């Protein structure tokens, strides 16, 4: 009997309690938190990993379901899971920042469609970058690293003592600045070339005001942007791997300190 006459099997209650942290991480993390992923698949994965955690760690859930200490423990578990997923989701915002900078300079900022990750409208170039970052994330087994960190988090942050300290919360906040830095560095090769092109077009418009440079400048920006993307994409792919590595390292620092 677990509070107010509610009868639950102890093993089932322990599994539900463990699934709170894992489910919160999957809700906030990329790939797992995509709206295109069915809820039943997400819940099944959460339950399967919860069974793995119960087999590896002796988790003791709160004795009563309807108690203040139980609600506080569940909030702490959800906070840890959301923090781990939020760090990865923050890193995945870097391609969107880069696409805004490049797309605005190329003149294709208006091209947008529904993003399958979050179900909202986003730039088409940003979706292309996000898909490439997702594929690189999966290719280096980032999803397995996330699951491994979730299992290890029950050693470093056991239930009942899982409140994140001020230093770890500050590290999460400062990692948000890395998304802007990574987006700027990701857009730097193409963005700098387009900036130089815009400067040349601006100088020509001042030197020859009678010329209709709008009919030349926009196609030139689009053509130069496409060619620059094709040339710079190998280097951009390498830096996307750095973004994935930094985000996974940040998750490891959050969990293990």
UniProtKB/TrEMBL annotation:
Keywords, alphabetical: Bacterial flagellum, Cell membrane, Cell projection, Cilium, Flagellum, Membrane, Transmembrane, Transmembrane helix
Transmembrane segments: 12-32, 39-60, 66-88, 128-151, 171-201, 213-233
Membrane topology: Multi-pass membrane protein
Main subcellular location: membrane
InterPro entries referenced in this protein's UniProt entry, alphabetically: FliR, T3SS_IM_R
Location within or outside the cell: Cell membrane; Bacterial flagellum basal body
Similarity-based family: Belongs to the FliR/MopE/SpaR family.
Function noted in UniProt: Role in flagellar biosynthesis.
Record-given protein name: Flagellar biosynthetic protein FliR
Species annotation: Sphingomonas mollis
Phylogenetic lineage: Bacteria, Pseudomonadati, Pseudomonadota, Alphaproteobacteria, Sphingomonadales
